[in-house]
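hiii so um. not sure if this is the right channel but i have a protein structure encoded as tokens and i wanna go backwards to a sequence. like what aa goes where. can anyone help
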């Protein structure tokens, strides 16, 4: 397993202005290992987990990443999760500093799975990811849905941070590293 290699998506098929069309080919069952992998961290506002300003935030961040020449050569890769029903957190993989954005680094092992269906099934997918972690001899950390489709459907990768200790660095009250 290569360190800091991502499973990106092709930005050329971007009909929404926010995110590229998800292509699940080659995304299921990947193992990713990050050591101080550089990311831009952004937050979005939500109402009961429904993102209110995701398009605006993602467009701003992608513009800044493009201006900085920091786009991952392997493609678009974002880890996202809901911090609460009112707030989402997103980590955009980058290759260098991005002016005007908060920078962060992440370290850890991740596994990926592809799910598609109504967002209401997300809790089942989280359980499946936790089961996959146990099957791999690890303890589940945070689950990051990578891509959400329109009208309450999720179509994308769910990446699961694996941990050996009892505390994941991005758990509530935890921290991530800023470069």
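sure thing!! here u go:
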């Amino acid at each position: 397993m290569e360190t800091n290699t991502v499973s990106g998506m092709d930005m050329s098929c971007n009909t929404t202005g926010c995110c590229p069309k998800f292509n699940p080919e080659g995304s299921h069952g990947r193992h990713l290992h990050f050591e101080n992998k550089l990311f831009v961290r952004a937050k979005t506002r939500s109402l009961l987990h429904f993102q209110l300003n995701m398009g605006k935030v993602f467009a701003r961040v992608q513009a800044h990443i493009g201006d900085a020449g920091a786009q991952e050569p392997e493609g678009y890769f974002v880890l996202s999760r809901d911090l609460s029903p009112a707030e989402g957190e997103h980590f955009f993989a980058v290759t260098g500093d991005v002016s005007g954005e908060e920078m962060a680094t992440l370290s850890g092992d991740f596994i990926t799975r592809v799910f598609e269906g109504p967002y209401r099934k997300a809790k089942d997918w989280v359980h499946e990811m936790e089961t996959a972690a146990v099957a791999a001899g690890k303890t589940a950390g945070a689950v990051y849905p990578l891509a959400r489709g329109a009208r309450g459907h999720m179509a994308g990768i769910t990446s699961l941070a694996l941990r050996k200790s009892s505390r994941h660095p991005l758990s509530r009250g935890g921290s991530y590293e800023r470069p």
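oh and The two ends are 24 Å apart (CA to CA).
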